[in-house]
Design brief:
single chain, alpha/beta, TIM Barrel, ten-stranded parallel beta sheet, about 35% helix, disordered C terminus
């Protein structure tokens, strides 16, 4: 979808917008299911990047302490526990600028992915920038989806990160798609951006070919010590609008109600599910910030008559439509 079309939808009266998104949701996701995902930080802190929102940057003084890459057996134990608690996708995040083939840590990651993929769960990783070779090896090892958020619009991106470019993000996502993995990519609300930036972010995501398999909508959790520590966040109705807009723009994607959910009431979460969200991070922690308790999540789903989605570890990436350009580019 193009910006003007998305802007017209965004400007609709609130109830008109969510009625439209609900119709799209029911047409593409009629099963009343929610995907439960568990996110584990397998290597925390000490990152060389300067993302203004991130507690894991080595450039900022936060309560997050740098840690080494976790051992495979410990990660496997956490993955098994997540599976027993109902999670169908296990996401592993590492605070790195990127990974490079031929390094010890990348070999360790491949070993970890191979082990986790044998548990019958969908496997997602977020490891920073990827080249073609790294993407192909992760796919072969068993990665189902790769998370690499674009965060905001290209124009606003330069105000929150200086150690890489927006085009760098797009290049990694192209390598992920070319390797046959699904793309998990979304944005963060509350970075000091304007409404136009949020709509441009969704315009870019909706014009991926193929479109992302999942789209996390994060609300900034301000972290003391980071440049965005004093951010005031975003209005609750804005979160629902962006969920609804994402559902309409990318109808076949799982729209994930992601970071910031701990601060949401059950009623607000229910409204987000109605507007089109059908995936959540499930468990006690999101990388370095808190998350609602698992039991509370299951109770909420039960109240709403929603069921956990079953795992599909063998799923293929969405198919491209027509002819793709050889390189992603800003337009």
């Amino acid at each position: 979808m193009q910006y003007e079309e998305l802007k017209q939808l965004y400007d609709l009266p609130f109830f008109d917008l969510i009625q439209r998104s609900r119709k799209v949701h029911e047409a593409h996701w009629p099963e009343n299911e929610v995907q439960l995902c568990t996110l584990l930080s397998i290597k925390t802190g000490g990152c060389s990047e300067d993302c203004s929102y991130c507690a894991q940057s080595a450039r900022y003084t936060t309560e997050v302490e740098a840690e080494r890459l976790m051992e495979t057996e410990e990660i496997l134990e956490r993955a098994k526990l997540a599976r027993e608690n109902g999670s169908t996708r296990f996401c592993m995040g590492a605070a790195w600028k990127g990974v490079r083939d031929g390094t010890k840590r990348f070999d360790q990651v491949l070993e970890i992915v191979e082990s986790v993929s044998e548990l019958g769960m969908e496997v997602c990783t977020t490891l920073g920038e990827l080249g073609e070779v790294e993407a192909e090896k992760l796919k072969k090892a068993g990665v189902t989806a790769y998370n690499h958020n674009i965060d905001t619009s290209p124009e606003h991106y330069t105000k929150i990160v200086s150690t890489h470019t927006f085009q760098d993000r797009l290049n990694t996502l192209r390598h992920v798609q070319d390797a046959g993995m699904s793309v998990c990519s979304g944005g963060i609300l509350g970075l000091g951006e304007k409404t136009e930036d949020r709509i441009k972010m969704l315009e870019i995501l909706s014009n991926f070919n193929p479109q992302p398999e999942s789209v996390p909508i994060n609300s900034l959790v301000p972290i003391p010590g980071t440049p965005l520590a004093e951010s005031q966040g975003v209005d609750s109705f804005e979160v629902v609008r962006m969920i609804a807009l994402a559902r309409i723009a990318i109808p076949d994607a799982k729209v994930r109600l992601s970071a910031g959910r701990k601060q949401m009431s059950e009623e607000l979460q229910a409204l987000c599910f109605f507007a089109g969200a059908n995936s959540i991070f499930y468990g006690d922690k999101l990388l370095t910030t808190g998350n609602p308790q698992s039991e509370a999540d299951l109770n909420l789903l039960k109240k709403l008559g929603l069921e956990p989605q079953k795992p599909n570890p063998g799923q293929g990436a969405p198919a491209a439509e027509g002819t793709r350009p050889l390189e992603p580019a800003l337009g």
